[in-house]
Amino acid sequence: MTSIEMDHLDQVAAAALDGYLVRKDLVRRYSRQYPVPTYVVEFLLGRYCASTDPEEIEEGLAIVEKQLQGRTVRTGDEELFKSRARDDGPVKLIDIVRAKLDTKNDCYAAELPSLALKGVQIADSMVKENERMLTDGFYAEVTLEYDALIAQEKNGRPFRIAAIRPIQMSKPDVLSVFAKGREGFTTEEWRHFLIRSVGLEPTALDERAQRVVLLRMIPFVERNYNLVELGPRGTGKSHIYQQISPYSHLISGGKATVAKMFVNNASGQRGLVCQYDVVCFDEVSGISFDSKDGVNIMKGYMESGEFSRGKESIRAEGGMVMIGNFDVDVAQQQRIGHLLSPLPPEMRDDTAFQDRIHAFAPGWDFPKLNPGEHLTDHFGLVSDFLSECWSRLRQSSRVSALQGRVFWGGALSGRDINAVQKTTSGLLKLLFPDPEMPVPDEDLEWIVRLALESRRRVKEQQKRCLKSEFRNTHFSYTMGVDGVEQFVATPELHSDEAIDGDPLPPGQVWAVGPGGGEAGAGLYRIEVAVGPGSGAKILNHPQPPAFRESVKVGEQNLYTRAKQLVGDRDPRSHEFSIQLRPFDADKSGAGLGLPLLIALVGSLLERSTRGGMIVVGSLNLGGSIEMLPNPVAISELAVDKQATTLLMPVAARRALNDLPDDIWTKINIEFYSDPTDGVFKGLME
Length: 685
Known about the structure:
It is a single chain. The chain is 38% helix and 21% strand. α10 (207-221) packs across α20, α22 (545-560) packs across α24 (593-605) and α24 (593-605) packs across α27.
């Protein structure tokens, strides 16, 4: 066994959670060799090698190796195990145990798939204690006996399960150990440590990919949480739902039956959503229900966490996760349909179904898994300890942590707020497992932004399917009572280079300069930040001389009209840092007086600029508005840049008589009479 260099995070973890750690490369070494999922291997490693001391690990590995060799059944060895049970007495093995009621003989019969044995005797009490064996079974350590006398009877069942030990941890105090351990980490270290605990290496993943991993974890800690993740193949979407936790169940493509998912009406047997914390549909595009009302039952369940059987209503807490693949890239997918197109037909365009999805994780932000690079060789938590803690965190909610600290914008409907709160609650439980632990503002803010972005992605797809009903998707939030409203976009739809309908943060304005000489009209984005001090500072190097002139004009007009524009605030006691971003051939920054004035006032008043709007207007130092040489060309450019509104001086109206009719239908042109009028038409109410 190679010993690895323990890095800083390993040392922090060893100090905080000694006895609950396992080296993740060892797990991979064994899970490939033996026919069992990762959490089974980790269960044994956790029992014998939960240490950072190389010698102890070495000793433990010898035991684990021996147990896995002696207790897992490889294909072709079935008869060896059976004959051992007959000739040498009870055998121990690790296998899935399933059971069903044998009504002819009024008893339960168990099945051990790896031995291809059915009709194994099992005591009623064992079945009662472990009801999951009646649905899809679970992994356990099983002691199997053979009774020669029964073998001689007609239809006798000689094999009997004498003892069973489910492979999962159940200690009463796991959560307090978990919460206490968290105290030794910074938030970022803890986030990286969680990612290592599911077998991935955080240092090989960028910020966006790490967030995808966190979103994948939420269904384990948040009850009735519905998540969709779509993206390219080979990014390890199903890994966490299959390998990490015995509380999660993966359904691979094909038919899902109402009886298996929810309840079997004949026997009254509860289905997967009652037995597991997470039910994941892999390759969701191939899923279909056996009956017409399957999707309706699922829709009702995703909304309320209940479904009815006959007269009674059954509550369950299992979350629904749907994962699937695009065959094309995101931009292409947006052009040919919408990002939920890979769902089955009965879900794909049903906006009511989509509305029940709490978050959409951007699978395209996660790289194709390269085992040498993206899988970790460091220490992480033993899976069964981690999954047990996660399962217990489901009992509480963290929505109360938002009270008085975060306020949602007007674009969020009741369902949106519920979805965003569930995502936020889940992320808070993952990152701050102890409810008493204070959550710093900056941590809360990125959690809230991630929650809003992953819900907005659902809304944007609904808008594609049904424009009339879902118009406003401009999700926003405000931190604290005195905070500034911040808007959250989804990166795949909104780049910084595109003019979209979202209001711009205070101090940012889209502007068109009239251009001069060779260069025609050109698009700019002006960004102003305000701080203590005085004067205006241009951040561009070198500073374009014509832009310096525009800034001087904007600044002078702000000082002379301060009372009308900013009330009792004193613009002279603030310093404005100004940056110009040109997008076209004209990079001079000439003739941008009014857009600059709007940016300066917006930054000072902390008011956002209207979304989808381009501002045009050249001022002089005295505050009068100069004539535009080319209003028609400017209007055509604004349509070209996909703006929805163009704000122009009213004197340009006559020249626009020559504007072609189809341009008038594509953009809303608004006019202002003087600089003050222009400023207030440019800013949000």
